[in-house]
Every structure is written in structure tokens, then in C-alpha cells.
Amino acid sequence: MEIIHLCGLVQDQGFLVGGLSNLEGDQWSKHRKILNPAFHQDKLKNMLPAFYQSCNEMISKWEEMVSKEGYSELDVWPYIVNMTRDVISRAAFGSSYEEGRGIFQLLEDLTSLTIKVFQSVYIPGWRFLPTKTNRELKMKHKDIKESLREMIKRREKAIKAGEESNEDLLDILVESNIREMEAKHKGMSIEDVIEECKLFYFAGQETTSVLLVWTMVLLARYPDWQTKARDEVLHVLGDRKPDADGLNRLKVVTMILYEVLRLYPAVVSLARSIPKEIKLGNLLLPAGTEVLLPILQIHHDKDHWGDDAHEFRPERFAEGVSKATKSQVTFLPFGWGPRICIGQNFAMMEAKMAMAMILQRFWFELSPSYAHSPCTMITLRPQHGAQIILHKLGSN
Ligand code: HEM
Questions:
Q1: Alpha-carbon distance 300 to 246, whole Å?
Q2: Annotated binding-site members for heme
Q3: Are 295 and 269 in contact (CB under 8 A)?
Q4: What is residue 68's DSSP assignment?
């Protein structure tokens, strides 16, 4: 089976998600080959300072808020969104971070406009009409492309002049683009690079912020697990800055993150198209059939996960994913097969860093004003935010 795209409706808008997730066949494997090295464990280690800096900025703000009374009530969702955006801006654009943030702001506006379009009645062809929203969408898209093009050109110039590489995602792509110029069809075109940069924002930021916000909500709802996670963090890391080795040793935190990904997968379903006739169990699917993989339903299926499928029970992952799933493909928050999420290690590392730093400094509970309402707006988000009462660790 082949992937159609990360999120069916998004592609219909044609603006948000491009790059790898929309490609097929040779084009896809060429891009994937170029991008894979950027996500290797050793490269991820180099990105840890960027993760730390962004998490630290968020936590410093929270520390200031709790400093007076020892506690503070806040909606953590916008802070987390901002932090994950910051992480991907630093990791993707390194030295051009400020400029990258500007582009991400434009992409955020584009996402909001696209959600607005999703929430209206769908009329085929409507997107071609010069309505106010459609005109705005087109303009934002043009601005994003122009800003990225400028940034890419400047990087190209610097690399050709022999300046040292920033080792960020953008440099990896730009170097590939230079190779494309030198030997046709070996790398990516400038348009390809633009599309991949847009994809990093969408695939890397939206999803990770969703994972973190549900983790905070569930740990606030289940204080026993919050204590277990904090005990582990303090045992492994003390109050030290988290390093790669320490983060890799956080077993309970990993179990919790997996259980959150099971109950609240950021991507609730995947679409696949069938290129040629195939027999699937008792079904004969003709070529051209589109199949929907309902990740959310699979993750909640009692036949596979047991009667407690709807409950938060991180202990089911105590002996890893394959034991929890009895080696069946029933846990697929990052997809499955060759198209599996390229950024899953990046996301897990970032989530562990953020959770470790939060648990080192605060304990937290749900505010009475929190209304639980997961809703799919491209990803599975908390519709009314995540109102949490943060307490300085050590205070009652
Ligand atoms: C909790 C965080 C994340 C979740 C839940 C997630 C989920 C997914 C899913 C479900 C897919 C589709 C896989 C398939 O079709 O089988 C995907 C693809 C992808 N993700 Fe992620 N993702 C996350 C974080 C990231 C990050 C941090 C990045 C990059 C920095 C990223 C980049 C991508 C890319 C480029 C693809 C397309 C891969 C391809 O088509 O070859 N993701 N992701």
C-alpha cells in the first residue's frame, strides 16, 4: 500500500503539508534518503541544547508565575505550543532561528485559516473561488514561500563560500540542493526544500505539542503516576540538566508517553491508496481503493488491548511495545512500515526532556475549570485548552 498523505483533508487545501508526506515512489525514496541522516541518534544529541533552551524558557516563565504564592493556575496549552514551535525553529533553522520563528508564525496563521475552511461546509472546487479566506490563504502561502526562498538562497551562498555548516535540518537540505545543481536529479530542487521546511513545522510541531499537553493532563489526573515519574526523574537526573544518557534511562516516563500516544494519538487516522488489486483477509480490494486506518479506534480496541482499553494504564508498556501489543500492529501513533514517522526519536527525546524538566520543578493538578474535550482539528487537540494548577515542588 502507498501513503496518500499525512492527513487527507489537509492536502485538499494544498497549502499546509507538502514534502515527504505527499510524495510517492522514487521521489519519496530520494527525499527520505536525504533526510534520514538528519534524524540519526548522533544528530539528535546535537539538538539537545536546542531542546533544553526552549524548554527552559517555558519553565522559567512558569517559575516566575508560581514564585509569589507557591502556585499558579494557567492554561498550559499555548505555552507548550510555543515551546515546541521554538524547538523546531532552533533545530530546523539554527542560526536563522528568529527568521524561522517568523515563518512559523505565518504557517500558524495558515493552519488557523485552513481549520476555518475545514469547519465550513465542504463544497468541491470552493477553494478556487476568490473568497476572503481563500485570498488570505494564498497570500500567506506566497509570503511563506518567499521568506523560505530568501533564507535558502542565503544559506546556499554561505555554504558555497565555504562557511562552516550549522548542522541543522536546513543545512542538510540546502547541501542536497547544491548537489542537485551539480548533478541533475541527485538531490532536491529549491521548491522541494521549501516544501520539506513547511512539513517540519506541521509534522514536527503540531504533533509533539499534542503529546505533551495530554501527558500533562493525564499526569495531573493520575497523581500516582506523576509521583512515579518524578521519583524516576529525580533518581536518574537529580536536579541536573537532562543529558542524552539520562533521558534514555527514563523507563517510567517512556511508558507514560507510550500510553498517552495510545489513548490520544496526535494523528487519529491515516489514508492509504491501493496501487494494485490486493487480498486483505477476506476482502478483495481493487486497484485505486482508498483505505482509512483508524488509529484512534485501533488503540481503543478491547479485543486487542483488553477490557481496560479505555483506561490510563502505563504499566501495559512495562516490557516494551511488542509485549504490550503481542507483536501485532495495534500501536501505531507514528504510523508503520517504510513510511513510519521520520521524527519519532526527535519527538520522544523532546517530550522526555520537557517532562523531565517540568517534573524536576513542579507538581501539578487539574484545575476545576478544566473541561475535557479532545477534538480533532487536524491533530487531536484539547478543545478548551488545558487548565492546570502548577505548584512549586516542595510546597503543599
Ligand atoms: C509525537 C510526535 C509525532 C507523531 C505522533 C507523529 C506521527 C506521524 C505519523 C502518524 C506519520 C505518518 C506515518 C505513516 O504514514 O505511516 C508521520 C510522518 C512524518 N512525520 Fe511525524 N510525528 C511526530 C513527530 C514528528 C517530528 C518531530 C517530525 C520532524 C521534526 C516529524 C516528521 C514527519 C515526517 C517528515 C513524516 C513523513 C514521513 C514519510 O512520509 O516518509 N514527525 N508522523
A1: 32
A2: 341
A3: yes
A4: T
Q: What is the CA radius of gyration of the chain?
A: 22
pLDDT of 56 higher than 70: yes
Pocket of ligand 1 (CB under 6 A): 3, 6, 20-21, 32, 199-200, 203-204, 207-208, 211, 266-267, 270, 333-336, 339-343, 346-347
Look at the alpha carbons of 253, 255, 259, 264 in this order and tell me if their dihedral is positive or negative. positive
Q: Among 84, 111, 31, which residue's Cα sits nearest to residue 339? A: 31
SS3 at position 84: helix
CATH number of 2-392: 1.10.630.10
As given in the structure block, the three cell numbers for residue 119 are 469547519
The string of pLDDT tens digits covering residues 189-199 is 778 888 888 78
Percent of the chain whose predicted confidence (pLDDT) is above 70: 90
Of 133 and 322, the one with more pLDDT: 322
102 vs 2, more confident:
102
Mean pLDDT of the 95-112 span: 77
What's the 200 CA to ligand 1 centre distance in angstroms? 9
Site to probe by mutation for ligand 1, drawn from 85, 334, 355, 381 as the one with most ligand atoms within 8 Å of Cβ, is 334
CA of 66 to the centre of ligand 1 (A): 35
- Give the E-state strand segments of the chain in sequence order: 2-5, 71-75, 270-273, 278-280, 283-285, 290-293, 362-366, 374-377, 379-382, 387-392
